[in-house]
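Why this split exists: single-chain examples teach little about how molecules sit against one another. For that reason, every record in the complexes split bundles all components of an assembly together and asks for one structure covering all of them. Below is a record exactly as it appears in the raw files.
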Amino acid sequence: MTGTGRGTGTGRGTESTLRVGLVYPELLGTYGDRGNALVLVERARWRGFDAELVEVAAGDPIPDSLDVYLFGGGEDDPQTMAASGMRASANAVRRAIDGGAVVLAVCAGFQLIGTGYVDAGGEVIEGIGLVDARTVAGAPRLIGEVIVEPEPSTGLPTITGFENHGGRTKLGPGVRPLGRVTRGGGNGIGAVDGALAPNIVATYLHGPVLPRNPALADLLLTWVTGGPLEPLPSVLEEALRAERLAEARLTGWRARARDLRLERG
Ligand code: GLN
């Protein structure tokens, strides 16, 4: 595959078609997580890269030839089904990451790239261990708008997203979160969301997360193409971000006002 990319780096996308893999979308695709794939493909194409969406059908082996691996969210049953296929292909995914591929894992996808998820019935669904993060089902479900202040090293602006999950995720020693949660639950432990590892971003945020946070999409594209990337006009994206961030802050203030009224009796 010969590329047409205009990136200046030495990454994979400069030499070949950028293959954005959407893994098991029939199982891992709640809350429009497929939108993450569309955003990556389009933002790459807008910059002159050849980019294509590659869907890996549920249960199929996950090839080691993809440049981006997207693992979306899913409730416990589809998550259990997805887990066995992922475990069977774990070495392929690891090889690809070692070769420069990047991973975005959302919610159930996050739990599955971790070491495992213990569901509400106590059943253990083993993950593929790309990051040291273990999840246990908890209550109540964490549902609503989330605001995350990302790890400064990422250089990202405030992240907006939506969450709906029961799992509480504990990061292993030394594992960095994606950021600090200022509204919402995120991992549900330690007021943080997600995890960061070389070439890997994990988060609880749907929305989907990349349409709401184009800078995060571009961070993944920078990693995989070797960047830097041309900036893109993003008026609509900024409008969406402003609206969602305002909604999250308002929800937070409303909850505080309600608590205060309850305290006063
Ligand atoms: N089953 C997981 C949980 O509830 C993931 C949910 C999801 O991906 N939305 O924690």
